[in-house]
UniProtKB/TrEMBL annotation:
<dbReference type="InterPro" id="IPR000914">
    <property type="entry name" value="SBP_5_dom"/>
</dbReference>
<keyword id="KW-0813">Transport</keyword>
<dbReference type="Pfam" id="PF00496">
    <property type="entry name" value="SBP_bac_5"/>
</dbReference>
<feature type="domain" description="Solute-binding protein family 5">
    <location>
        <begin position="83"/>
        <end position="467"/>
    </location>
</feature>
<protein>
    <submittedName>
        <fullName>Peptide ABC transporter substrate-binding protein</fullName>
    </submittedName>
</protein>
<dbReference type="InterPro" id="IPR030678">
    <property type="entry name" value="Peptide/Ni-bd"/>
</dbReference>
<dbReference type="InterPro" id="IPR039424">
    <property type="entry name" value="SBP_5"/>
</dbReference>
<comment type="similarity">
    <text>Belongs to the bacterial solute-binding protein 5 family.</text>
</comment>
<keyword id="KW-0732">Signal</keyword>
<feature type="signal peptide">
    <location>
        <begin position="1"/>
        <end position="19"/>
    </location>
</feature>
Amino acid sequence: MKKKGTILTVAALSLLTLAGCGSQSSSSSSNGSNKYADKQELNWTESSELATNDLAKATDTLSFTVLQNTQEGLYRLNSKGTPANALTTKTELTNGGKTYTFNLRKGAKWSNGDEVTAKDFVYSWQRTLDPKTASQDAFYFFQVKNAEAVNSGKKPLSSLGIKADGKYKLTVHLTKPVSYFKKLLAWPLFYPVNQKAVQKYGKKYGTTSATTVYNGPFRLTKWNGTSTTWTLAKNKTYWDKQAVHLDKINEVVTKSTTTSYNLFNAKKTDETLLDGQQVKNNKNNENFVKRLPTGTQRLSLNQKTVPAFKNVNVRKAFSLAIDRKQLVNDVLQDGSTVSKGFVPAGMGNNPKTGEGFDKEAEVKSAVSYNLKEAKTLLAKGLKQTGKKSLDVSLLVSDTDASKQTAEFLQSSLQKLPNVKVSINTIPYVQLITRQHNKNYDLTLSGWQSVFADPINFLDVYESNSSYNTSSWSNKQYDQLLDESENKDGNQASKRWSKLVEAEKVLMNDQGTIPLYQAAKSQLLRKNVKNINYNPAGVPYDFKTTYIAK
């Protein structure tokens, strides 16, 4: 069992959308309909650069959003967040829920002309799990038979529980029933990859738009690996191209909401994220849309670079010194809400009582503000660690919201005696690399779920998690998560209780410092229709989006 989520692009994205998948009739203006504008071109903003176009290397929301729109898997999520058939036409579930047999769609093509077949899925999964690939997300496959042993190099790739039975039949064997497995299959990490393309481009695969092939609604174009602009162009080889209305999606990186706001008002873009003041000024704007995805921001304390953070009193002192209400109400002002814990609202409800997880598992002391108590605990913690002072650096991305949050945290933490905090801002792509390498003292970390279940968040802090960069570890926590998935997976109430208990262990020990659930309010032109948005996963799927007259 491992992490099921993605690093949330800081102040960048609203959350997921995966478009309905069945074949739909074309309704473009060319066939006489007066519903569609003559020019089907969407202009979109992002607040960070694109990190990768290789699904085995992606870890952040933006990368997965681009992959979602340029690739196709067995399923796509529909407007209700339910997996709908895409490359599978029929799925048979046997062996007590542990064996899936997929009949694949015939005639689906890659953009290089190759047919999409079962072997493309086998190759993709084996490649992601291959230790040589060093995929940070390989653990997502560990429910598949032998996946963990393959990833650790203990078994050959051929032993992985996925087999191609001819071109159009795919069989997957799991180690246990997984209730959310179809939702995972709708996530780009589980999509197929064209082996010919990977072998042709080698290490350059996925590093530019030209070194990837596509089987989804769009093709990525005009991206050289570091571009601040790129285009998603309609993919003429896509099997369901008649359902795709947009000819182009032009994307531009604008790290400042002031810049993107000005571009929107100048009618150069069709969308912009809003900061706090802009939200206040535009609540009555006909184009205003408020979104509250299941994405959070937290303060991570690295116990390896700052040994004092191993002390629970020091960690609690840092948490108690932060007035989260002031942060969201006076600094961000964008509709973000104070975190009740690490797991945000919208991640599931008690199967018996219906109570939200975030409310049931809340540990108020872990998200409260009490500067007096913080000073007392810090003095106690420093004495226990033999330290007289702390001089630490806070690493954040160079987006507006991140810098505003960093300045607030710096001011808050420096109210603690003998604490000095410096701020280091870097581009987001560099940030996620530094975080992965555990090269920071303090950092703002974001997390976005792949599907709505508390485990999506909680297993980030398992001891062996590749995303647990702070080195916090707790045996009781690990045991509770292990039992919830491997012992009580089919007993909803027991599983729920152990997840609640695990969250409380994490919060009582202040394994991390939750800050807020990030709102992603935006202006979106009213004539942009059919964006399929789901708050609990990869953000936008533009497959059926169109520009109305």
